Structures are given as C-alpha cells and as structure tokens.
Amino acid sequence: MKKQLNNLRILGVSALTLTLAMTLDSCKKEGCMDQNAVNYNHDAQKDDGSCTYDEGNQVTVNVNHMFGTDAMSTDSIYVDPQGTKYKFTRCDFYLSNFKFMDDNMNMMGMTDTMFLIKLGTTSLNMGKVDLTGHVHTMDAILGLDSLTSYTVDPTLMPAGHPLAPQVPAMYWTWASGYIYFALEGVYDSNNDQVIDGSDQTFAMHLGTYNFAVNNQFMIHQTLTANQDLNINLNLDYSQLFVGFDLANDNTTHTMDNMPLANALKNNLANFLSVN
Q1: How would residue 46 be classed by pLDDT, with cut points 50, 70 and 90?
Q2: DSSP characters over 182-212
Q3: Are the C-beta atoms of 180 and 206 separated by less than 8 Å?
Q4: Is 270 helix (H, G, I), strand (E, B) or coil?
Q5: Which of 37, 141, 164, 192 can bridge 97 by disulfide, Cβ–Cβ 3.0-4.6 Å?
Q6: Measured on CA atoms in the order 139, 64, 275, 211, is the torsion positive or negative?
C-alpha cells in the first residue's frame, strides 16, 4: 500500500513539473532568434521559425579622392590653367539612381539608395542588390532626378537622410530645389603666391534639372549568388578647373552665371571613374 502511495506521489510531482514546464515555455516571447536574420528579435526567448534573410549581392563602393594620380588633400595648394593658386575647402554632391546592366544592356538590378558624398567620404554601402550573372555597367546620376529635387521637402526627411537639411546647405528653395554639386575653396586673389586669410573664396553651386550629370561606369564582373561586389570610385579633382580662370571667374549659383555653371558641368563628365 505504501509503495502504491509513493508511486502516486511520484506521478503527481512529475505531472506537476511537466505542466509547470509547459506553462513556462508557453509564456516565453516568440520571435526570430538568429542574429544574421533581417528580422532578428533580441527580446525573443523562443524561436518561432519566422526568420527571414537578405538575398542578393552586397554592393560596396570605395571612394578615392584624387588629384590626378595623387591623393587629394585640403591642405595642398593647386594651380589652375592660368597659374592661379587655390585650395579646396568643400566638395559636396549627390550620387543617385543606380542601375546595373548586363552585356545586352538589360537591367539586372537597381536601387533607390542615394548618397551625399563629401570630402571625408570613403565608403558607400549600397546594401543588397540581386546581381547574379555578368554585371557589364553601372549607371548613376551625379545629382538628383527632377522629381526628387522639386517635390521633396527636406524638413520632412528624417535626420541623417541625405535629403534632410544639411550644414552647409544643399537646398535652395522649393522653386529651385536641391543643390546637386557644391564646390568651394580659396584662391590667391592678391597674386602674392600665398594662400592665407587675405585671399578671397570661390563658390560654385550647381542645381536645377539641366545640371544633373548621367554617368555610366564599366564594371565587367561576373557574380555568383550572394557574392559581394566591391567598386572603386575615383574622384579626380584635377578635372574640375580644366579651362578655368579662377582669378577672373570664380562664382556661380547656376542661374546667376550660366557660362561658368555650364563649364563646370562639362568638366564633371570627367570627374568620376571606376576601376
């Protein structure tokens, strides 16, 4: 009789333990527990099988600021075609509307990611783009498409977004839209062969839809599924002032000096390259 009672007690405790364990397990917060998943939930205590993963090729652009074959530096003094010395202090511009094409010029993939590139920018993370196969070219706009430029209100964009308010500004007014390319610096205005506080500044700001510059870069890489694509984008600042005379023509906000704005736009065709 005692043995039967003991057995019943053991069964009762076991059942209680099992019930308690099941209750505690059912109370655990469910979710994706794989840190490599895009929907990873750090609060989850029980994996519910909902994990999803990014598919595609990670695209990273390495940005190289060059002056000819040398690294460009804001500490360096350069000379324009007329012999005027100058230094760069600012170069901000948008790069947007990326499209990847195959050998038959069929679009393989595209991304609406846009970047605001500055003098200190060294890398662009484009995220995942499905580019399995042979990538022949990459198209991109230096600037913004007209719809974005004239319809986006920068004050409504979240902080940190390229189209949000910037310091220095990259936006004029709702009528003029965004500044696509802003180039500033100091030139030897008194011709004493020294760049110092007595010299004047130059400022060239391009905007409006006519001043976006279309670029097509040769990529020529064959990618397998999920293989990374790394692109070296070279910015050659020596191309910007080809044919310029900074001592006599050094300021444009596009509409107030169209000849200089057009000359700078023409030089931007040789500003960017990929290797």
Answers
A1: confident
A2: EEEEEE-TT-SS--STTSEEEEEEEESGGG-
A3: yes
A4: coil
A5: 141
A6: positive
